[in-house]
Predict the structure.
Amino acid sequence: MYRPEIKVVDCSIRDGGLINKWQFSDELVRETYKACAAAGVDYMEIGYKASAGMFDPKEYGKWRFCRDEDIKRLLDKIELKSKISCMVDIGRVNDEDILPAKNSVFSMIRVACYVKEVDKGIALAQKIMDKGYEATINIMAVSTNLEKDINEVLEQLDKSQVPVVYVVDSYGSMFQEDITFLIKKYQKFMPNKTLGIHCHNNRQLAFSNTIQAVIDGANLLDASVFGIGRGAGNCCLELLLGFLKNPKYHVRPVFKLIEDYYLPLREKIEWGYLIPYAITGMLNEHPRSAMALRDSADKDKYTDFYDQLTTPETTVKSRH
Amino acid sequence: MYRPEIKVVDCSIRDGGLINKWQFSDELVRETYKACAAAGVDYMEIGYKASAGMFDPKEYGKWRFCRDEDIKRLLDKIELKSKISCMVDIGRVNDEDILPAKNSVFSMIRVACYVKEVDKGIALAQKIMDKGYEATINIMAVSTNLEKDINEVLEQLDKSQVPVVYVVDSYGSMFQEDITFLIKKYQKFMPNKTLGIHCHNNRQLAFSNTIQAVIDGANLLDASVFGIGRGAGNCCLELLLGFLKNPKYHVRPVFKLIEDYYLPLREKIEWGYLIPYAITGMLNEHPRSAMALRDSADKDKYTDFYDQLTTPETTVKSRH
């Protein structure tokens, strides 16, 4: 697939940090940036921006805060070929933590919000744009909403100045037909917006759903190195670059990065296709129950886990 | 997706045996059969049928030969709820090894052949049908042929009495658009045949390509437990059963089987998404070079491997 408008966003550190509280070595983050730049990746999303008081810095690594000075130090003397982005959650970042874009290393700040928070999301994205950044709204967990509520927020978004809206398969529960349904809906309600796609790999569909979104017209594509990301992880960057025919992309630097850094990392922290994540994907649920299982002695007791999530009388206990 | 004509073929032992020369314990094979039967799987393909002299029985396990008496012994006293099938290769099975169907445990025998062997495949399938079995032709490595040659064999197959023809993505190189292209082509040339789909998972697309084939009209669906199969493996049976809405299918017995048998097996033999298999998939090549790499001390030297396969002057050496 070749379409000049297509842009790739690497979110290895941002989404991968959900596994290890962003406790990555500087070297790994720097090498990830360098590989992305060499691969022609358009944006590297380096973490979440959050205010200092929001999280304990002893527990959370610096990519949970994404202070400009940390990134400048990290990427000192490296040619910034890929644009740098970060993500913000509603209510976790103060105005003063977002510098004017002209003083910042960030080009893009993406706002993650649920359907019910889209009003707040639009307001935050507007502030971000007013400071000179590119902005997106990533509507999380869209698969758990009634269609009337989705339509309502798409109408609101259409009226906003936010230029990019993401279809996000937070739970890895969607099939290609669901992706097509949502992309077509987003296009219908917001004919002038650029659409993005962010998929999770619970059912081994993150890459194919990303392809489907490209076929349907999405132009901002999220992926991560070796699929790193919470739970089952994301669309593999190496697979996506092997699919896109745009000559600016090169897959080899990503293979090298996996070989040197992500294979050893995968020995220390876990992500990828595992049965408990497939189960929460099938059930269209947040992976938190599966993550808790994988963190326990019962991590491979798949049938007990499946029974807990599917037997009505135990559902409340196990889900909350 | 629900369509009453859909049937699922488990090929865990047959395709998985390509990893370990069919050296599975009787217990694992028996428990796989029992789980398939409990899950409502329509066919279990238990191995390849080959004549005794073709392979050394000290090196190859009994599912490389699939003698009726071995299977009768294995499944003694088990209710045969799933039909039993096996696969045959051209030139590796003698007439006398195929009993009349009425004396056999097999319901279906599938013929695997390349485009250039389809004449021989049709002749063998006809013999199999004459003995009273269901038969299919699985055209391997179709992605490496010129379209005129594919069209020619589809015309031949249309004239044959073989009722089922498979689209096979042997190298895990196809995207959903390729699946649609081939299914539509097979339908156009053979409007009265049932179509099957068999995918490999080199690019994490085996499940989504199987879904795409279902959407396009394929009704015989191959899958394997936890994706076991040569190289990157196949479409995961547990994912496929979680997708199909036919009430006869139950995914829980497959989770139990993975927990008890396939997770320990995966500790001993390797299959699944690994970069060398992704690379051969991207290059539309047989995985043998990747399998050789994984069997060597250089198993994680991805960039060297990629360079070997993509640098013209080393290509001949490394590919053969």
